[in-house]
Specification:
Shape: elongated
Strand content: under 5%
Number of helices: 3
Length: 98
């Protein structure tokens, strides 16, 4: 009869905690990107200059992948919420309310 190996519980908890934090950052990043996908829709009617600002902002959101510290990544993404570009539209066309 063989004796079952004992799992290192502390290591497993640490790995699980790290995975949870990684998933939280991914979720925050994905939410920010999904909530700004509308700028690429053909009927968004935002100005070319404004589209460029949005593209740059979205690139900054994606940069979070380079940050390895959880708290730093979380602060970085929260800071980008305050930097979200204002929206300016071309001509007199304004977005329709749903």
């Amino acid at each position: 009869m063989s004796i079952p190996k004992i799992r290192n519980i502390k290591t497993s908890e640490t790995q699980l905690g790290l995975q949870k934090k990684t998933n939280e950052i991914k979720s925050m990043k994905n939410r920010l990107l999904q909530n700004s996908d509308w700028v690429y829709l053909p009927d968004s009617n935002i100005s070319v200059e404004n589209l460029t600002e949005w593209k740059q902002w979205r690139d900054k959101v994606k940069e979070v992948n380079k940050i390895t510290d959880f708290e730093t990544a979380k602060k970085y993404l929260n800071g980008l919420l305050d930097e979200k570009p204002a929206t300016s539209y071309d001509g007199n066309i304004q977005p329709q309310s749903l």
